[in-house]
Design brief:
The chain is of the alpha/beta class and about 325 residues long. It folds into two domains: about 140 residues, Rossmann fold (3-Layer(aba) Sandwich), CATH 3.40.50; about 160 residues, Dihydrodipicolinate Reductase, domain 2. Helix content is about 25%, strand content about 25%. It has nine helices and 14 strands. Strands 9-10-8-11-14-13-12 form a seven-stranded mixed sheet. Strands 2-1-5-6-7 form a five-stranded parallel sheet, sandwiched between helices. Helix 2 packs across helix 9 and helix 5 packs parallel to helix 7. The longest helix has 15 residues. The radius of gyration is 20 Å and the shape is globular. Bound molecules: NADP nicotinamide-adenine-dinucleotide phosphate. The site of NADP nicotinamide-adenine-dinucleotide phosphate (NAP) has 32 residues, from helix 2 and helix 9.
Length: about 325
């Protein structure tokens, strides 16, 4: 009987920002997580509305009414600027937090908060009280670049050129005229041009840890689909490796959520899955050795809720893939 009670005990968790795209995705994935159980979810304008966790239906609470002390972990899917205060409130109640906003990511704070790019910083996440979950674009881009950085493959002084396109859910579900169906559908455009996008800060900080002489030039685009990111990254190399793809295959051998493939990745390969899919191709007809790396993720899963749960699994000493396969 005692053993049965132990087996069915699940760790109670809360979701701040449950009515948003990332919060709803947390609800969807956590519904079948065998170790975490959603105890509450919050909303601001949409407080009082239903919140689905699989077959269960909770009612979205105002953040001030959230029973923070009743849970062991809170996922904050609040907008940047609003999240840090709540994460600190959670933490001051002795509860752990995974922050999906940019507030506590490298380049945005002077605080030393573990950065949840799991495949790079896994050891820092074990028992972490607070984790800063990476942005969606940085997840796709940094995981694509990581083996080149670690192996010192990139030409000194290189400009790494990143063109990436995201589905519309990347912008959240607060109403904005430029995100209306008639503006987005059958259309394609760049935004945040001029290398000023907010996600550059965490990418530059992370690349900077490798002491490589590299610049990043990042241009995001708005793709007329609900979800998914495809990044196309042009990288000048010191020399072309004999077996190019082996650079990624060796680095990510044994990584459950990184799929290195010969084929070019497409959004359909990654949608609703907690994976990044990567390939690399040498470039012909240019004077210097150059590679194009392609990386695809679901912005709401590996780029947000899925990676947040992956990080929470690591923090709680639960097998990393729990609730995230299939
Ligand atoms: N969307 C993505 O692909 C993605 C990927 C990675 C990280 N993120 C990050 O995850 C966070 C959530 O993103 P999202 O796309 O889910 O945003 P969203 O759809 O706009 O949802 C925001 C959520 O926060 C609530 N909220 C807004 N302002 C609040 C405030 N001042 N106090 C308390 N609650 C407030 C909203 O409640 P109401 O609905 O009631 O207004 C909603 O539940 C953001 O920090 C975002 O940068 C998003």
């Amino acid at each position: 009987m005692q053993e049965y009670a132990f087996m069915v005990h699940r760790i109670p968790v809360g979701i701040l920002g449950g009515s948003g795209y990332a919060g709803r995705e947390l609800g969807r994935i956590l519904a079948s997580h065998p170790k975490f159980e959603v105890a509450f979810a919050t909303a601001k304008e949409r407080r009082g509305e239903p919140f689905a966790v699989g077959d269960r239906e909770l009612t979205l609470l105002a953040p001030d009414d959230a029973p923070l002390k009743s849970v062991e972990l809170v996922f904050s899917a609040l907008p940047h600027g609003a999240s840090e205060l709540w994460v600190d409130r959670v933490s001051s109640n002795g509860v752990r937090a995974v922050d999906l906003s940019s507030d506590l990511r490298p380049g945005h704070t002077s605080r030393d908060v573990p950065y949840g790019l799991t495949e790079l910083f896994r050891a820092d996440l074990v028992d972490a009280e607070i984790i800063a979950n990476p942005g969606c674009y940085p997840t796709a881009i940094l995981l694509a670049l990581l083996p080149l950085l670690e192996g010192d493959h990139i030409e000194s002084g290189a400009l790494v050129t990143i063109d990436a396109a995201s589905g519309v859910s990347g912008a959240g579900n607060a109403p904005r005229p430029e995100l209306l169906f008639a503006e987005v559908a059958e259309n394609f455009r760049a935004y945040g041009v001029g290398n000023e996008h907010r996600h550059l800060a965490e990418m530059r900080e992370t690349v900077g840890r490798f002491n490589r002489d590299v610049d990043l030039l990042f241009t995001p685009h708005l793709l007329p689909v609900a979800r998914g990111i495809l990044a196309t990254i042009t990288v000048p190399l010191r020399r072309m490796p004999t077996d190019l793809l082996a650079v990624w295959q060796q680095r990510y051998a044994g990584e459950p959520f990184v799929e290195v493939r010969e084929q070019l990745p497409a959004l359909r390969d990654v949608i609703r899955r907690n994976v990044v899919r990567i390939t690399a191709r040498p470039v012909a007809h240019v004077r210097r050795p150059t590679v194009i790396v392609f990386s695809a993720i679901d912005n709401l899963v590996k780029g947000a809720a899925g990676q947040a749960i992956q990080n929470a699994n690591v923090a709680f000493g639960i097998p990393e893939t729990t609730g995230l396969l299939g």
